[in-house]
Amino acid sequence: MAEYPTSFDKDDLLKCARGELFGPGNAQLPEPPMLMMDRITDISGDGGPHGKGHVVAEFDIHPDLWFFECHFPGNPIMPGCLGLDGLWQLTGFNLGWRGWQGRGYALGVGEVKLTGMVRPDRKMLTYYVDFTKAVQTRRLTMGVADGRVEADGETIYQVKDMKVALSET
């Protein structure tokens, strides 16, 4: 396990987006506006309900976020796919945090449930990623995790069997 902190502020996340945190050619977060979190409050390689690792992160919601203007005019809602992308981003971040090499990419998700919406009056999203499997072999580096997103404490998105891999190419 690499020696990184267990929490990260926005400046740290932007360093990751620029390839400065885990090194060139390794896991990166997207830059704003696609960066879907403002801070990571806790991360581990052995925590969570399965003992395989976890991530907890937060995203501050304000009415001027880019997606509210276009999705949908007169009825602003954060696209659910952006919440899912935030969960994928955090899953890949955890693999890089472990010191595992390669660029991250989403492989899929087994199940998605959207039971609520993010409107401009919400204040904060909290992401929870709980790994069920983290594998690193000569041929494969992959994390499998379940996740959920809460808006102001209310669970609005849940996913099972989310998969992210790291590849040297």
UniProtKB/TrEMBL annotation:
EC number of the protein: 4.2.1.59
InterPro entries linked to this entry: FabA (IPR010083), FabA_FabZ (IPR013114), HotDog_dom_sf (IPR029069)
Alphabetical list of Pfam families matching this protein: FabA
Domain of life where this protein originates: Bacteria
UniProt keyword Cell inner membrane, yes or no: no
Gene Ontology BP terms: fatty acid biosynthetic process
Molecular function terms, GO-annotated: (3R)-hydroxyacyl-[acyl-carrier-protein] dehydratase activity; isomerase activity
Main location class: cytoplasm
Catalytic activity: a (3R)-hydroxyacyl-[ACP] = a (2E)-enoyl-[ACP] + H2O
Keywords tagged on the record: Cytoplasm, Fatty acid biosynthesis, Fatty acid metabolism, Isomerase, Lipid biosynthesis, Lipid metabolism, Lyase
Keyword Mitochondrion attached: no
Subunit text: Homodimer.
Family of the protein in this entry: Belongs to the thioester dehydratase family. FabA subfamily.
The protein, known as: 3-hydroxyacyl-[acyl-carrier-protein] dehydratase FabA
Species the sequence originates in: Allosediminivita pacifica
